[in-house]
Design a protein that fits this description.
elongated, five-stranded antiparallel sheet, alpha+beta
């Protein structure tokens, strides 16, 4: 009888051990499976890029559709900042205009030529004028393509004798193009035009 009880205890121990081993195996399998899925998902968020065949760089890849709206607004903002920020420095002006023209079509070139014909850039240099731009708001309509946008901002024009605040309202549309080093967002501004660029106020500089 005692021997039978020992056999039963050993049998129950063996069963419990097998059950524990099975549960642990299943748990380990589930953990490994979940971890593998997570690693695969993370790996798909990464791109490995060869830099001239020499070094391996790691670049994170984001879902483009999620950031497109923010990219569009930044593209419009960057263009206007480059186009309307002027200092009494010919090289600075030319560099800003060159970078701005990469972001827009011939409509921006047409406006640049108008400013140039009106002697704007020469007057900025000769009179030591500084022009900066503050962006107020940018709206982009993604319901139709090309995407129409409206830009609202203010120019601050500092002359030797006074400071002028000027309203700036423009509109245009955005077309998708390939991303390049000179156009990292992959947008091109088209049919761009200035709707309002009138003075709001002028104050005399106290240090003049």
């Amino acid at each position: 009888m005692k021997q039978l009880l020992n056999i039963q205890r050993q049998f129950r121990f063996t069963v419990y051990a097998l059950m524990a081993t099975t549960v642990l195996s299943i748990g380990a399998g589930v953990y490994t499976f979940v971890s593998s899925l997570r690693l695969v998902k993370e790996s798909r968020q990464k791109i490995y890029v060869l830099d001239n065949g020499q070094s391996l760089l790691l670049a994170l890849r984001a879902d483009i559709s999620e950031n497109r709206s923010a990219e569009a607004r930044h593209h419009v903002k960057r263009f206007h900042e480059l186009f309307f920020t002027l200092e009494p420095d010919k090289a600075y002006i030319e560099n800003n205009i060159r970078e701005a023209l990469y972001l827009a079509d011939k409509s921006a070139m047409k406006q640049y030529r108008t400013f140039k014909e009106n002697n704007l850039y020469n007057r900025v240099i000769a009179s030591d004028i500084s022009m900066t731009l503050q962006s107020d708001s940018i709206s982009v309509d993604f319901s139709n393509y090309p995407y129409r946008f409206n830009y609202y901002g203010k120019q601050k024009i500092v002359r030797k004798s006074n400071t002028t605040i000027r309203q700036l309202i423009t509109r245009g549309q955005l077309r998708n193009i390939s991303r390049t080093d000179n156009n990292t967002h992959g947008f091109l501004i088209e049919s761009w035009m200035i709707e309002d660029n009138t003075d709001i106020q002028t104050t005399r500089r106290t240090n003049f």
